[in-house]
Amino acid sequence: MNKKITIFLTGCIHANTKEGLAISDAAVRKQQYIDAIQWYLNNTPYNIVFCENSGTDISNEIGTGRGRLEFLTYTSKPLKVDYGKGQREMEIIAYAIEHSAMLMSSDIIIKGTGRLILKNIVPVTSWLAKRNTSDFCSIWMSIKEWLCDSRFFFCSPSFLRLFSSYSSRLNDKLNFERVLAACIGENRKKFHFIYPPVWYNIEGIGGGLGVRYHFTRWQYYKLNFKNIIFYITYNWLGYWPKKRYE
Which residues of 57-79 are buried (b: 16+ CB within 10 A; e: fewer)? Predict the structure, then answer.
């Protein structure tokens, strides 16, 4: 069976705060989103859902993508208590779950940061598509504690809906990455965790710290060697770190 795969990108073009943002210029942010979406259109066969929370519609600047693209946009309301970007991210996920025509009918969802490119998205997804993906999550995890790299993760629609229900767990100590790890760790009997077979290969500029992501061939070789150790530890030995945060 050919599995239906959807890339789910979240975005905020007109950021309502500059605090904690290295890139706050709306024009720059918009172009980064457009470039990323165009890259996925040109380099993957998957459907793409882009959900944006500042009421900025960019659909007429990219086109239909031959039916592969779905744009969602709305305007976030002010928060009484603001726990940072993770809180808005959870809000966007919840909105897309309820309003997207593509997202929840997928077999595999690839949740990504909208302005970054996962260059090895196709080989990782193709590897996962050969496995049981009925109720699963796959993400790069720390081996020391309940902490994951949330810039990109792969999951079933059922897991994404469950994770969305964890939004109330966010606070000034538990950020998006730790809440996601908690969701995985607490539900491993129901949702199987699959550690990815290779290290992520990300290109782009991080909006928070302004870090430019790029690996040389030698850097990526070393990271993939590390990934083999993590892969065996999680997938073959059934390991899960003990240290967690509440």
Answer: ebbeebeebeebbbbbbeebeee
pLDDT tens for residues 196-220? 999 999 998 876 666 788 899 999 9
Structure tokens, 164: 């969305």
pTM metric for this prediction: 0.94
What dihedral angle (degrees, nearest 10) is formed by the CA atoms of 94, 95, 101, 104?
0
Q: Which residue has the tokens 């929840």?
A: 104
Which residues touch 149 (CB under 8 Å, ≥6 apart)? 139, 140, 141, 177, 200
Q: What share of the chain is helix, strand, coil (3-state, %, to 5)?
A: 35, 20, 45
pLDDT in tens, 158-187: 999 999 999 999 988 899 999 999 999 999
SS3 for 78?
Answer: coil
